[in-house]
Amino acid sequence: MTNFEVIVLGASGTYPRPDGACSGFLLRSGPTQVWVDAGPGTFSNLQKHTPYSELRALILSHLHIDHITDLYAFYYALRYSSESKGPTGFEVYAPGKAEDHLDKLVSTTGPDGFGGYFTFQPIKSGDELKMEAFLFRFQETAHPIETMAMRVEAGRRSLVYTADTAPSEAVVELARGVDVLIAEATMQSPGTASRPVHMTAEEAGQMARDAGAKRLVLTHIAPTLDPAVSVEQAKIHFEGEVVAAEDHMRLEV
After folding, report:
1. Is 141 in contact with 171 (CB distance < 8 Å)?
2. pLDDT computed for residue 190 by the predictor
3. Which H or E element spans position 92?
4. pLDDT > 90: percent of the chain
5. C-alpha span between 17 and 236 (Å, rounded)
6. Taking a C-beta distance cutoff of 8 angstroms, is the pair 46, 24 a contact?
7. How many CB atoms lie within 10 A of CB 3?
8. Which residues pair with 219 in a beta bridge?
9. Is the distance from CB of 95 to CB of 124 less than 8 angstroms?
10. Residue 172 in contact with residue 152, Cβ under 8 Å?
């Protein structure tokens, strides 16, 4: 059976709790390591588990700041570290015109933007991406900007990361029969926004139940909330194992 491990690099929603980090995960299968989402604090945490030089790619689910800002720390390491290998075009996958958006900040430090240190590849709903042992499939979520949930398969094992989303039948279909569902559970009671943009823990439990997932991992929980309460709320609807993601947690898929 193909080895498939996930390390939580950050689990806080919107902003990091004390000594915590926002959204980020390290996926491992054999020698292939892929960083998913680069929230504040995740690059520091990543280096506790692997040298960044051994990463295969970075995938950004969307361009909200709590999922992207450590891309800049990573870029500085690639460019200015004494171990820099020069502009190798490290692959960054993201929705929309990510390079145009992200370049706006880095271009203030020089005229060449990312200077060839990154190669940006667009992803959209319905795309498949094969990366050594991994197969990624992407599905747009219910969120104010273009956001990609992703199903990741390695051998016979499967993982779905919802990224940021309100309840979504499309994401339920993506997660059908999945071994591990990592679902955002920002809230413990419904929000007051004019249109939903995040899920409650109960809604995450409903999604796991409807998808027939085997295990549920809650993430993106607002930093002022007690994750233990979120777990109990998710269990109202989902009878399988439920845990709250914590920084540095290791999950065998």
Report:
1. yes
2. 86
3. strand 90-95
4. 92
5. 26
6. yes
7. 13
8. 184
9. yes
10. no
CA–CA distance, 134 with 232 (Å, rounded to integer): 32
Token readout for 239 is 């009878």
Dihedral pair phi/psi, residue 150, rounded to 5°: -140, 140
The rounded mean pLDDT for the chain is 95
CA angle 77, 33, 60 (to 5 degrees): 70
Dmax (CA) for the chain in angstroms is 55
Amino acid at site 243: V
208 φ, ψ to 5°? Answer: -60, -45
Q: Encoding tokens for residue 60?
A: 């950004």
- Is-contact 143 62, C-beta < 8 A? yes
4 vs 137: CA distance, rounded Å: 16
**Cβ–Cβ under 8 Å, residues 233 and 188:** yes
Determine the Cα angle at 48 with ends 43 and 54, to 5°. Answer: 70
Local structure of residue 215 (DSSP, 8 states): E
Q: Is the dihedral of CA 158, 198, 239, 16 positive or negative?
A: positive
State mean pLDDT over 221-246: 97
Read off the pLDDT band of 113 (50, 70, 90): confident
The reported pLDDT for the residue numbered 107 is: 74
Six-digit token string for 32: 């292939």
Lowest mean pLDDT among 18-32, 62-76, 81-95, 183-197: 183-197
- β-partners of residue 243 are 217
pLDDT in tens, 143-197: 999 999 999 999 999 999 999 999 999 999 999 999 999 999 999 998 766 678 9
From CA 104, how far away is CA 100, in angstroms rounded?
A: 7
188 token code pair: 């413990």
Q: How far apart are CA 235 and CA 242, in angstroms?
A: 7
